[in-house]
């Protein structure tokens, strides 16, 4: 009875071990390559699977997620014979687990080596000054070349990014000196352009000032001329109105005598003013005959009335 229990226990343990060895759970974004009796049998995707004991065996386990590979720094020679150190990062993804298992022994090592050789080739096509500005093109060329080779390996190269481009110390010092000279040159050019723009703006401002001043003087002269013309018209109208009223007043009874008196007052007033303003006075022969002068003036007025 005791021996039967031991045998049963051994058999139960053997069954558990076999089940543990044959039951497989594949994680998400993973693929297992199964061989049956040494030959490719199937690729297990994510989920639970049961293998045949002692017949099936998992040979390769691949991750289907995007993987980043660090490409070590290497020395590349540019077209103008300058040695620069270049490193980068490669991003790839396994698309066909069967090809990735049997197409090449180690696709990561192969792709890394191919990335380095392709990078050296691409850097050797351009001068040092263009290596920094041609990063994007270099990355694209590396990806294109790697993608051609990795297709047979079941691997898709997604992108390649250059991390650093390190020139020699003497070249780096010369580049810094050149960059400093370029900046000083741009500073001098910008300063001169600023001075030129300032001078142009100042001249333009003075020009506008002169134009505005001349327009103001022109408008002032026009306004003054209009004012003088209006004043002359007003004075003429007032003079004409005054003469007309004087003429009407003369026609009234006693008007002629009033005019005669007014003429006599004006004569005496003007004669007295001439005597005050000048020491030298030229008088007509009959200047003392006020009556004859008034009579002469009144004759002129009468002649005007009769006409």
Q: Helix- and strand-based class?
A: alpha+beta
Tally of separate helices: 8
- DSSP helix fraction: 55-70%
> Strand order, biggest sheet?
3-2-5
The residue ranges in which pLDDT falls below 50 over 5 or more consecutive positions are none
Mean pLDDT figure: 86
Strand content: 15-25%
What is the gyration radius calculated from CA atoms? 60 Å
Overall 3D form:
rod-shaped
The largest pleated sheet is described as: 3 strands, antiparallel
The overall strand count is 8
Order of helices and strands: HEEEEEEEHHHHEHHH
Q: Termini separation (Å)?
A: 181 Å
Summary keywords:
307 residues, alpha+beta, three-stranded antiparallel beta sheet, 61% helix
Tell me briefly what this model is.
The chain is of the alpha+beta class. The protein has helices at 2-22, 97-102, 107-123, 128-131, 135-150, 169-251, 255-277, 290-306, and strands spanning 23-26, 30-36, 39-44, 47-50, 56-63, 67-77, 83-94, 155-166.
Provide a descriptive summary of the structure in words.
This protein has 307 residues and is of the alpha+beta class. Helices cover 61% and strands 21% of the residues. The chain has helices at residues 2-22, 97-102, 107-123, 128-131, 135-150, 169-251, 255-277, 290-306; strands spanning 23-26, 30-36, 39-44, 47-50, 56-63, 67-77, 83-94, 155-166. The strands form three sheets. Strands 3-2-5 form a three-stranded antiparallel beta sheet. It has a three-stranded antiparallel beta sheet with strand order 6-7-8. α3 (107-123) packs antiparallel against α5 and α7 packs across α8 (290-306). The longest helix has 83 residues, at 169-251. The protein is rod-shaped. The N and C termini lie far apart (181 Å). The mean pLDDT is 86.
